[in-house]
Amino acid sequence: MIKRVVKLVFKEEEIENFKKLFEEVKKKIRAREGCHHLELWQNKHNPKEFFTYSFWDSEDDLNNYRHSQLFEETWKRTKAMFDGKPMAWTVEGLEYLP
After folding, report:
1. What is the tally of structural domains in the chain?
2. Pick from 41, 52, 63, 94: CA 20 to 30 A from residue 17's CA?
3. Residues 18-52: pLDDT tens digits?
4. Strands across the sheet containing 49-56
5. CA distances from 28 to 49, 76, 83 (A)
6. In degrees, to the nearest 5, what angle opens at C-alpha 52 toward C-alphas 48 and 16?
7. What is the CA radius of gyration of the chain?
């Protein structure tokens, strides 16, 4: 299993628009084959910064989503709201201590 963290920075006036967009697509993203978990985080000290956090069975599943029509349409709408370059990391968990 892999985990994906994506940092997104939005124009202040677009924050609510992004939240509405995420609400619109979150269940569709979560329903994608191989996706087991999806979260949206907002930086408490910089409300323009958001992070998505998702779990995927494999990098192939993640890439299938990233090449889907759902991603292309959502990304196009999201990019128009940016106030900074997005950053993304694909990681594997090594240890977990609940």
Report:
1. 1
2. 63
3. 999 999 999 999 999 999 999 999 999 999 999 99
4. 35-42, 49-56, 2-9, 87-91
5. 23, 16, 25
6. 40
7. 14
Query: Is residue 96 assigned to a domain?
Result: no
- Domain with residue 69: its CATH number is 3.30.70.100
Cβ atoms of residues 90 and 65 within 8 Å? no
Q: pLDDT grade, residue 83 (50/70/90)?
A: very high
Query: For residue 31, with 0-12 CB atoms within 10 Å meaning exposed, 13-18 middle and 19 or more buried, which class applies?
Result: exposed
Q: Which amino acid makes up residue 9?
A: V
Closest CA to 91 of 52, 49, 59, 51: 59
The domain in which residue 45 lies consists of 2-85
Query: CA nearest 40: which of 63, 68, 74?
Result: 74
Say what the pLDDT of residue 44 is: 98
